[in-house]
Amino acid sequence: MQDSQTGMRDYLIGPLPLSDATTLRRLTEIYTNPDIPYNARLFVRQDMVDFGSFFKRTLDSIETLLKDLFGTTDLVMGGQAPMSYDGSWRRFWSPLRYNVPGIYLHPIDLQFYVDTTDLDAGKWKILKVYYNSQLFNSLEEFRLSWRNGTLVKGLMPRLNDTDWATRTRKGNKRDLDHLAGPRQVSFDGPRFRVDEDQNYVTWMGWSFYMGFERDMGLNFWDINFRGSRIIYELTPQEALAQYSGLDPSQSSTVWLDRAFGMGALARSMVRNYDCPAHAHYISSTVHSALGSLTQPDAICIFERDSGKPLSRHFATERNEMGATKGYELVVRSISTVGYVFW
User: Highest taxon of the source (predicted)?
Assistant: First the structure.
C-alpha cells in the first residue's frame, strides 16, 4: 500500500474472506525499515509503459547515429537491477539489443545509465552513455563526439548472422534422427486422482495438497503416506543467482529471485516437451499489486516409469529372481526469471 508520494508501507489483513472478524494493521516486525522508500521499488506496470515511451523518444533522437554505428534502429532496451540501494534514488544501466529472435544473445555495444528517480516520467534522463570502452556524461556528449569525428567506432555487427540463436535445426540430421523418439503412454488412463477444487492429489497411498503463490510458485502441504503425515510443508524458500561480466553492479550483486516472482513468471507447459501430452494440466493463479493473474496449464501431473527397478534381487539357493517396477509421480511447474525488454 502506498501512503504518499514518497513512501510505501505494508499492512497485514485477515482473516480472509472479508468478515466482521477481519482486521488491518501495520506490518513492521519483519522489516528493518517499516517505511519503505518509494524509489526502492522495482518497475510496475505504469513504469514499464512510461519507460517504453522514454525509450522510443531517446532512440528517435539519435536515429541517424544508430544506423551508422549498428545498421538499424530496430532495437530493444533492457533494464538491469539493483535500481537502488537505499531508496533515495532509482537508477540503472540499460543495455540495448537487436530486435531479433533470441534477443538476450544479441547485445550491441551500447548502454545508457538512466535516472528514473522522479515520479514525473517526463523528467527521467540519461546520465551516462557507454560505447566501445568510451564513457560519455550525457546523450548529447555522445552525439557530439559522433558528429565531430572524435568517437572511436567499433566493428559493425553482422545483422544477417542471427539465425544461430534460434531453435531451428542447423546442419545435417544425426543418424536415425528422422525416426520418432520414445514416448510414455498410460494405456489404462491415470493412476492418480486430482481434486482441482481442493488442489488435492492422491496416488498409490500418497496424498498431498498443492499451493501456488506469487513469490516462489508451486508448494506442497500435508504430505501423507497411508494416512500418516510425512511432511507438513514442502515449499521452495529462495532462488539465488549471481552473475558476472555484465556491469559492476550486476557482478557484485547476489540475486534473490523470489522478489521478481517465480510464481508470477510461471508459463504454460509445452505438451510433449515440458510434460507428456497425457499429463493432467492445471492452471495457476497468483495475486499481486498488479491484480490477479491466471496462467493456463502452469502445472502438470503425470506418472512415469523411472526406467529402473525399485528393487532387484537374485537368490542362488532357489534360483529365485525378483524385480519391482520403479514408478514415480511427477508434479511440475517451470518459471523463467530474466530481463524485461522494451
Answer: Eukaryota
For the chain, what are the domain ranges?
7-39, 45-159, 192-332
Are 65 and 143 spatial neighbours (Cβ–Cβ below 8 Å)? yes
Residue 185 CA from chain centroid, whole number = 31
Say how far apart CA 25 and CA 100 lie, in whole Å: 49
Provide the grid cell at 273.
516437451
C-alpha atoms less than 13 angstroms from C-alpha of 293 in its C-beta half-sphere:
20
One-character DSSP codes across 115-179: E--SSSGGG-EEEEEEETTEEESSHHHHHHHHHTT-S---PPP-TT--GGGSSS--SPPPTTTTS
Q: Tens digit of pLDDT for each residue in 221-253?
A: 999 999 999 999 999 998 888 776 655 566 677
CA 262 to CA 79: how far, in whole Å?
18
Render pLDDT for 7-32 as a digit per residue (tens, 0 to 9): 778 888 999 888 999 999 988 876 56
